[in-house]
Amino acid sequence: MRSRTPLPLWILAAIGVAFVSLPLLALLIRAPWSDLGTAFTGAGAGTALRLSIVVSLAATVLSMVLGVPLAWVLARSTMPGRSVLRAIVVLPIVMPPVVGGLGLLAALGRGGVVGRWLHETAGIQLTFTIWGAIVATTFVSMPLVVLATESGLRSIDRRYEGAAAALGAGPRYAIRRVVLPMLGPSLAAGAVLAWARALGEFGATITFAGNLAGRTQTLPLAVYEARLTDPGGAIFLSLILIAMSIGVLVAMRDRITQGH
Amino acid sequence: MRVFLAMVVVLPLLAACGGTSATTDETSELTVFAASSLTDVFTERIGPAFEAEHDGVRVVFNLGASDSLAAQIRSEGTADVFASASGTWMDAVADDPGITGRADFAQNRLVIVTPPGNPAGIAAIEDLSEPGVQLVLAAEGVPVGDYAREALANAGTLDGTLANVVSNEEDNASVLAKIAAGEADAGIVYESDVSAAAGSDVNAVEIGDDVNVIATYPIAVVSGAPSTELAAVFVAYVTGPDGQAALASYGFDPAT
Amino acid sequence: MGLHTDLVARRGDFEIAVTLDVADGETLALLGPNGAGKSTVVDALIGTLALAHGTIELGGERIDMLSPERRAIGVCFQDDLLFPRLSALENVAFGLRARKVAKAAARARAAGLLERLAPGVDARAAPAALSGGERQRVALARSLANEPRLLLLDEPFANVDVSARPGLRALVREVARAFGGPTVLIAHDPVDALTLADRVALLEGGRVTQTGRPDEIRAAPRSAYAADLVGVNLFVGELEPLDDGAAALRTAGGDITVSPDEPVGRGSRAVATLKPIDVSLHAGEPEGSARNVFRGTIAEIAVDGERARVRVDARPPLTAEVTSGSAARMALRVGDEVWASFKAVEVSLQIEDDPDRTPAAGTLGR
Asked: Can you give the pLDDT at residue C91?
């Protein structure tokens, strides 16, 4: 059965599409295509691109390692104050990233609450290092993993775990062989969202990790720095960023929707 | 649906009315784009004093790195007055869309800042090239960043010092914030940034006159601005005795 | 030996207190309506619900203190609960792998079980690709893979297509017969309980209200529920096709005429049920189209409000339900001679092992 979509919806949807796609189109139009080669090298595109890939992938892995167990606790434990905990954990999604960066500085900076101790006892410094960029990026990416995983966990019938236990599986074996495979699509969705968010992260990174080419200057930071001195290069960097994001989002969409 | 559309149209109007009352006849608004090193003196002293002297005038400041401001003026052209931290970016605005009444109104010297207690023991600009010192500078293209590199070149330690740079910040305020938080060992900002009036809690180390760079601040009325007459009055106020006194108390030197 | 439970468990405000004794080799059906607490009993037995107090003893050992994975109970779950991301074979091998049996050995044993219990099912198929009956067969194989000490079958027919039930029922009977330990069958359909179990325990409101052999419960139901459940006329026997498309079902208690949907083979085993309300009583020999007419004497009249349940000693014995008004009008009394009749089409027939159609049947045990 085909349902008819009312005309006003079509019009508003068209405006919505234009609203999102017009800036992308404008970037394509304004890009100085004749200077393609020099724009790349001039804006340090290769260095920033490499760093962005490393940082975003590392942040995605870290987000999964920390976020999935966290989602598990939120979905499965019955401890009081869970809703407050959930609110705190997903706060970075709605918080301005620069606020997150300031918070990270206050906590993990060289003079921070925990960072001072790390620096003095172990000589560990996160700010101005690639690790700082990874930490800042993870801070804003992890909540997406938590949300996706938790909703996935809630949709799994808990009797499967009971069945696994009755068949002789300990909790860890049951998680590995039964729950995680069923959770697959949710984990993939969480990872992709986290990765896409990590790729575009700017505010927390520049605030916490600083801005140094080759060490903490990811693509968004390079765009920001190049936008005045080399506007053409900035547009090319932006287009690289957009192309990567679109590529992965489109490629993963089919994977995600295929599982259930 | 109708309700939503109505909200889309009405809410911004409400916000505009409640916010600036820019649309009423009695008030005229003056938009001043100023380098972020001027933040304290403009917002705390010059702006309020100017408003007090001119009834019905409201001064709105847009503060940021001079390079960003120049780019905004060139693409959007919404400024009445531009106060830049360097002649370069004033030249850019003079080029497009054009300026009138340009005058240098202040000078600023560079100073090294360190966290309280000066953990790396910085005593002179040459110390910044010592191995292990973590230095933050404003990025290239930002006036204070360019001046800092010039001073380091004057001292003959540019290459060694650049190796110690851990971050290129977007403006002097970001440099100060990193130093105040103790994240790096040293930074280079304007003397006005660490004046008593600016109230910052960092430690300042002088840079010798032989290598220091004097930043000269030009101010001008932007051509094609909505209120060029009022803008000229503001420029005159800044370059006049009251403006100069305010600038002096915030650590700026008079323009020569 | 066998299974002995004397347990109390709570879920929210709901409490079950269940005492069960099942001998090795015996099948006990735990029969109850929805909400009686059957799934709570299952959870308490497998250990996903802790006991409030009491004990569970299996094979002479207390298992109620053990975590679920150490209880050695083979469970075949309601709606099968096959792990959706594992193949049929991996599902069956799951318990073995969990207990560190080498992969090759586990898969070999699982493949053997699948071949016996689910012939024709692709071992590599995902559960979603199988029919309800096939899934339940795989689930049955999975419950047996670990050589459990107790077989717990939780409504194994609930989500199986009606047409697939008879074959599955026959399989469950074979499996339970071949299994050496105690078998507990959770059921809400009395036909399952009465045809598969050696004894039946009735669960109502979290309590076992009656336990006994099916014929004992039939003879003396202690509650309205028990009467309703076991009051159904049940015939188990072999079919013999008749010339006109109908068939005779020959049972130990006497023969009836049934009306199969499709031609049946001679000697097919079948279970037939007939609701008491479909049985008519007459003072004299009735005229009309009913093919099943039997003369007998009234053995018992149980009046329950508007309804009267009348047990007639005939060949075969029958239970009829009439309104208490018509029972009074006919002046029915115990010992009176009556005629009972019902139409062949009212009999619900389930053929279990048509020798012509299910060559795989009977490969287990016997």
From this structure: 94
pTM (predicted TM-score): 0.74
Classify residue A61 as left (phi > 0), alpha (psi -120 to 50) or beta. Answer: alpha
**Average pLDDT of chain C to the nearest whole number:** 86
The torsion of the CA quartet B176, B178, B181, B183, rounded to 10 degrees, works out to: -140
Specify if A25 maps to a domain.
no
Q: Hey, of C83, C136, C153, which one would you mutate to test binding to chain A, going by the most A CBs within 10 A of its CB? A: C83
Residue A206 lies in a domain: yes
Residue B168: strand pairing partners: B137
Chain B adjacent subunits, 3+ CB pairs under 8 A: A
- Which CATH number does the domain housing residue A116 bear? 1.10.3720.10
Angle at A126 between CA A125 and CA A128, to 5 degrees: 100
What is the per-residue pLDDT across C331-354, written as a single tens digit (0 to 9) for each? 888 889 999 999 888 888 877 765
Kind and range of the H or E element at C150? strand C150-154
Query: What's the confidence (pLDDT) of residue B7?
Result: 62
Give the residue numbers spanning the domain of B68. 7-107+217-249
Compute how many other C-beta atoms are within 10 angstroms of the C-beta atom of residue C139: 28
For residue A6, tell me if it sits in a domain: no
Q: Are residues B199 and B112 in the same domain?
A: yes
The total of structural domains in chain B comes to 2
Residue C366 confidence (pLDDT): 27
Is the confidence at residue B24, as pLDDT, over 70? no
Size of interface A-C (CB pairs under 8 A): 69
**Looking at this predicted complex, what is its ipTM?**
0.74
List CB contacts (< 8 A) between C68 and chain A. 162, 165-166
Does any domain span residue A19? no
User: Residue B70 burial (CB < 10 Å; 0-12/13-18/19+)?
Assistant: buried
Asked if pLDDT for residue B16 goes beyond 70, the answer is no
Helical H segments across C243-360, by residue range: 324-329
User: A187 at the C interface (CB within 8 A)?
Assistant: no
Is C83 close to A166, i.e. CB distance below 8 A? no
List, as one string, the DSSP characters of chain B.
-HHHHHHHHHHHHHHHHHHT-TTSSS-EEEEEEEEGGGHHIIIIIIHHHHHHHSTTEEEEEEEE-HHHHHHHHHHH---SEEE-SSHHHHHHHHHTT-EEEEEEEEEEEEEEEE-TT-TT---SGGGGGSTT--EEEEPTTSHHHHHHHHHHHHHT-HHHHHTTEEEEESSHHHHHHHHHTTSSSEEEEEGGGGSTTTT---EEEE--TTT--EEEEEEEEETT-TTHHHHHHHHHHHHSHHHHHHHHHTTPBPP-
Residue type, B32: V
Which are the contacts of C95, defined by CB distance < 8 A and separation ≥ 6? A167, A168, A169, C142, C145, C146
Rounded CA separation C116/C111 (Å): 9
> For the domain that residue B24 is a member of, what is the CATH number?
3.40.190.10
C206, C16 Cβ separation under 8 angstroms: yes
Residue B232 CB burial class (10 angstroms; 0-12, 13-18, ≥19): middle
DSSP A59: H
- Whether chains B and C touch (3+ CB pairs under 8 A) is answered by no
pLDDT at A259: 45
Within-domain flag for B72: yes
Residue in this structure with the two tokens 């690709």, named with its chain if needed: C129
Q: Do C94 and A177 touch (CB under 8 A)?
A: yes
Q: pLDDT digit of tens for each residue in chain A (260 aa)?
A: 556 788 889 999 999 999 999 999 998 888 888 777 776 666 577 888 899 999 999 999 999 999 999 999 999 888 888 889 999 998 998 999 989 998 998 899 888 899 889 988 988 888 888 999 999 999 999 999 999 999 999 999 988 998 999 998 988 999 999 999 999 989 998 999 999 999 999 999 988 988 888 888 899 988 888 776 777 788 888 888 888 888 888 877 765 554 44
